[in-house]
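Final report, results section. Input specification for complex C-07:
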Amino acid sequence: MAAVSLPAWAALAPMAVFALTALVLFVYDAVEPESHNSALLAGISLVGSLLALGITGWYLVAGTGQPRRNGAIELFGGNLVVDGMSLFFTALIASVVTLVVLASYDYLQGHDYQAEFYSLAMLAATGMAMMSTANSLATAFVSLELASLPSYALVAYLKHNRGSVEAGLKYFLVGALSSAIFAYGISLVYAATGSLQFDAVAGAIADTSLVGVLGLGVVMVIGGFAFKTASVPFHFWAPEAYEGAVAPISGFLSSASKAAGFVLAFRVFLTAFPIDVIGAVDWVVAFQVLAVATMTVGNFAALKQEKVKRMLAYSSVGHAGYVLIALAALTDGANHSFVLGSGMAHLLVYAFMNTGAFLFIALAEHWEVGRTFEDFNGLATEAPFACAAMSVFLFSLAGLPLGGGFFSKFYLLMASINGGVAILAAALIVNSAVSLYYYSRVVKAMWIEEPNGDLEIESYPTGLYAAIAIAAVMTVLLLPAFGPVAETANMAAEMLV
Amino acid sequence: MVNAWIAIGALALVAVIIPLSMMLISSLLRPSVPEQGKRATYESGEVPTGSSRHIQFNIQYYMVALLFVVFDIETVFIFPWAVIYGDAVGEVGLVRALVPMLVFIGILVVGLAWAWRNGAVEWVRSPRAESQRVDRDI
Amino acid sequence: MTVPVQFYLLLSAVVFCTGLFGILVRRNALIFLMSVELMLNAGNINLVAFSHYYGNLTGQVFALFTMALAAAEVAIGIGIILVLYRNFEDIDVTKATTMRW
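Structure output:
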């Protein structure tokens, strides 16, 4: 319990810290445009993200915005809300940003425009943290764009690299299209209900005469979330963007951005379109279809990949499908807070193991060993520690009890059984088995295969290694510590349902 | 209700008929003498060079235009604020009415300063323009 | 004489579909930007019309935000299209295929 009582707006401090860090970086770059002091730039961003993480952790421990301390804090007329769920996801995003900044310091050596890179990353983090607190369709749209627009630029960061530019273009094209669809969906929901604030929308749904318009609006809003979480039908951008982007940014987008999309989806569908009010539009069934389709498309496409980074990109699509279970299993009989909590817990575990795996790819790109499975042959003889960490990430992603991924997948399985949707449980098991095959291909290449030709590694970059080590430790620690995490997630979810 | 629509329809009809009839009448009356000079692009009396299909503008035009668009659009946030400013000061006091807008403009100024220092508004001459300039200076 | 609110829905649907058609058919990246702009503005038509219909200002204010975000999106988009042109000598969105689509 914190002894001091802060004003209500202080609940937004983590977001303010991100935004201020971005501004400080901008001001620094405006004062010294020619500077190449990457240690200072990375240091500023690292301090900013650690500060945001610390404040969020403190709020979580002190119980800010939770039932044991006055309940959720509503700000700006209920347009933003700080509660257990928003703090949970802000902590997740801040951890991922910390890892990404740490890794980028080595990865960006010798590149120009580093200040822009870090400040765009901070702005994207601001947007993602805001997405977790958005409590009206207006703030949802604005924060989603604040998270997306810097991401487009970050993906196209290597502007002389054709792959990076192409990835940025495709990400931008799909993103612009889906945000237009999202905005139109919001306008239709507004047309049907006359308000944008989530609780007010839920209150007005019963009286609306424009049920068809509302239904179309909800479907379009689902489309907007499908883009942000890289789910079917807007998943096409994900493999391209993740493969072409610089690897730390791939990790950032595939974990933090996806988590932010999911928290917004959770809040919109549980607060604004509660299933018992919006009987006309049965979104639970829609999400069941999307979840199964996303899992299957992601995992089976990952099977056929030749490049490790692209394989991870497709596996990230598959994991979006697993998390969609949290919305798809919200049937009448289910324990809603448990179902939702398992999705949140999986996102947290996934954030560490997936970011870690992409950071290992960043390390491999730093060494310039190549991108295909064969290029990783015998890497363990040169870098046993990094390869051990990568093996932990991959096995945890597959759901083996080597990291927290085992329990989080198990909880999702229990959630789908709890919701009484057998097809989700079956799809989860089949797809996890499939994923084990392609994940173990990487492990086999690293540890068992003979190195082909001259595999030589000159440097062992400290920042990248530190980031990978932290991610690995967190992944392993989440195995014994999964109980408290799931409990926190359940408690946060309970406030929403 | 009905009358108003008739008036609009009549206006639309007249608007289409007048230009069409003018073009038709002039094409019936005028003599037809085709020659090269008439088909050339009019460039203020200069002899036109190159084609207009693949003309390339200096990138600086885009930079200035982009900055203009972004800052121009930001003014839509200032207008509603200006409209209610007087009432807002009376209701919530000067600080709460004024400071948020100052913060907003402050962020914009940081952005402008960054763009300025990074050369987005500096006019860089293209090599071709540079070579033509030398000719005239002599 | 007021226009029934359904007509606005129809108008915005037409504008939205025009934009969607443009995206699906045209390959020029700049046309793509214009089409996205059309789709966003279709949303704005709805917002403003129903703001008037319900008599609250929420929709109109949100329309201002949409406009500002559309401008920001175009700014980013033009930047990406410029680097696209420098790398691929074209702004045809189907030409950029070093990876598989």
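Strands of chain A lie at 73-75, 80-82. Chain A has a mean pLDDT of 88. This concludes the modelling results for the funded period.
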